[in-house]
Specification:
The protein has 150 residues and is an alpha/beta fold. It has 5 helices and 5 strands.
């Protein structure tokens, strides 16, 4: 099993936890030196905060762990393509690499709706890999929204 799959499975566990709490099932983990230093899932409903996305919470945890606002050698694994807000935060945090599972055809900022990663707009560019365990992530999302519509 590759490291990307191993860490994405941890992000999927976070997404499942979100679903169990009636939150949109998105999970994220941040890895530094092959060790998970942050785990989070969406908490927008719980916290009544539209910015409480999994990535945002994980970034805060990782920065606190490292005692630094720069996550220079960190890798973020997230089950859904980040939105513009979350991608902006990952760029500002100087995350080295982003690995995501499923594309987000409504809000995705890594090429699905916007492409903020391949253009040289910012002073920091992160490596991006998509599609790791995308079927599992997409299934969680589809089942969640199917239940919500009933």
């Amino acid at each position: 099993m590759t490291k990307d799959i191993q860490f994405m499975r941890e992000a999927l566990r976070q997404a499942q936890e979100a679903a169990e709490k009636d939150e949109v099932p998105v999970g994220a983990v941040i890895v530094y030196k092959n060790r998970i230093i942050a785990r989070a899932h969406n908490q927008t409903r719980l916290l009544k905060d539209p910015t409480a996305h999994a990535e945002m919470i994980a970034i805060t945890q990782a920065a606190n762990y490292l005692k630094n606002e720069r996550l220079l050698q960190a890798i973020c694994y997230v089950t859904l393509e980040p939105c513009a807000m979350c991608l902006g935060a990952l760029i500002l945090a100087r995350v080295k690499r982003l690995v995501f599972a499923a594309h987000d055809l409504k809000f995705g900022a890594c090429g699905s709706v916007l492409d903020l990663v391949s253009r040289k707009l910012f002073n920091h560019r992160l490596e991006v890999k998509s599609g790791v365990l995308k079927e599992e992530s997409a299934y969680l999302l589809k089942e969640f929204f199917k239940r919500k519509r009933k």
